[in-house]
């Protein structure tokens, strides 16, 4: 399942709209029902209106009725680690069954 999540996050990363930072991020969220929802970062000239990939993926799932997040893959710059921002961490904790972020890795 981990490889599938990473693959889907990589695919989502390519859809990122990031004309200001040029920093593409993709996420794949696995929910309790077994469905995987993906998301990318969507930037806006008004920086506060930017939506991160993690929230895009989680909100897609929640908008379809999913409620319990089981796992998530996050892919940003392929040469370094990418971590969720504070807002994304709060959203992850809101929906995650396991409140710990287990692992971060470069691919």
UniProtKB/TrEMBL annotation:
EC number, UniProt record: 3.5.4.5
Keywords noted in UniProt: Hydrolase, Metal-binding, Zinc
Molecular functions (GO terms): cytidine deaminase activity; identical protein binding; zinc ion binding
InterPro entries membership: APOBEC/CMP_deaminase_Zn-bd (IPR016192), CMP_dCMP_dom (IPR002125), Cyt/Deoxycyt_deaminase (IPR050202), Cyt_deam_tetra (IPR006262), Cytidine_deaminase-like (IPR016193)
Xref: Gene3D superfamilies: Cytidine Deaminase, domain 2
Record-linked Pfam families: dCMP_cyt_deam_1 (PF00383)
Catalytic reaction(s) noted: cytidine + H2O + H(+) = uridine + NH4(+); 2'-deoxycytidine + H2O + H(+) = 2'-deoxyuridine + NH4(+)
Binding site residues for Zn(2+): 52, 85, 88
Domain CMP/dCMP-type deaminase, chain residue ranges per copy: 1-107
One example of a Gene Ontology biological process annotation: nucleobase-containing small molecule metabolic process
Residues at the active site: 54
Entry cofactors: Zn(2+)
A single Gene Ontology CC term: cytosol
Family membership: Belongs to the cytidine and deoxycytidylate deaminase family.
Stated role: This enzyme scavenges exogenous and endogenous cytidine and 2'-deoxycytidine for UMP synthesis.
NCBIfam families xref list: cyt_deam_tetra, PRK05578.1
Protein name: Cytidine deaminase
Organism in which the protein naturally occurs: Clostridium perfringens
């Amino acid at each position: 399942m981990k490889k599938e999540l990473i693959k889907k996050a990589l695919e989502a990363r390519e859809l990122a709209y990031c004309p200001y930072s040029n920093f593409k991020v993709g996420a794949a969220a696995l929910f309790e029902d077994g469905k995987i929802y993906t998301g990318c970062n969507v930037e806006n000239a008004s920086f506060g209106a930017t939506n991160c990939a993690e929230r895009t993926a989680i909100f897609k799932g929640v908008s379809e009725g999913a409620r319990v997040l089981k796992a998530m893959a996050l892919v940003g710059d392929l040469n370094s680690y990418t971590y969720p921002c504070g807002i994304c961490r709060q959203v992850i904790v809101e929906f995650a069954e396991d409140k710990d972020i287990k692992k971060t890795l470069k691919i």
